[in-house]
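Q:
My hope is that you can spare some time for a protein that puzzles me. I hope you can help me see how the letters and the tokens relate. Thank you; the sequence and its tokens follow:
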Amino acid sequence: MQVGLVGAGRMGGGIKARWQNAGHEVVVYDTDPERSDAPSLQGLVEALAAPRVVWVMVPAGEATEATILEIASHMQQGDIVIDGGNSNFHDSQRRGEMLAERGLRFLDAGTSGGIWGQANGYCVMVGGTDEAVAIASPLFDAMTEEGGWEHLGPVGTGHFVKMVHNGIEYGMMQAYGEGYALLEAYDHPLDLERISSLWTHGSVVRSWLLDLAIRAFGNDPQLEQLRGVVDDSGEGRWMVQEAVDRSVPMNVIAAALFARFASRDDNAFSMRLLAALRNEFGGHAIHTES
């Protein structure tokens, strides 16, 4: 099928490659002219045949809002906009209603996999109507391995589930970071790469994050090349706020969020491990000055 893609950066570029490998025709608009097939968002929409499907992969917030409004102004009834970024689910619900008033269809597709998704397949959490999902399903199939995407409910559901997914990620990474900080503080020097490898065999704490820790320690045993600064991309804040609003206890994830705030003021080993893990799966890192 034919699809428009807005944003061909780290994840968008990987998604584009998987679509093309599956035989889909991808028309790209990116702020970098080197990555663009279309000169503008209007040009992107005009290059597509009806019913048009445009996947938006830009930073959450104002960038996503402006992009969706611009795209929608050039679309026709029955066309589909898919937000594959990390938008707040409340915004997705509102955007879905706004587009529906114009006769357009909207899907929120929370996408996980980072820079490894191109090779390993992404995990996609989808919200929207059955009809819109059916049209877009070949794209989800191409992005994922078998069982790697699900239609979970109406508009907003995909980004709600992705928010919770990322909040859990915060907590898991914080637990690893604190545990490895204690290992690093032991009286006898410990080989953290070997310990990470050991824990991937039969241990109850084995995970893909441990696989990434092995890579990180293999490249930089004391994580001296990274600053222990770990930004929060929004989902953790939204999740804690939703927990407050719904009276759901969330001690671990709230503490992990606050630890990320604290990371901006120090360079603790635990936070350097979090920075290393984010760099391994998402390409996010702040390096020390050489």
Observations:
- The mean pLDDT is 94.
- Strands lie at 2-6, 25-29, 53-56, 80-83, 105-112, 123-127, 149-153.
- The CA atoms of residues 226 and 288 lie 5 Å apart.
- The longest strand covers residues 105-112.
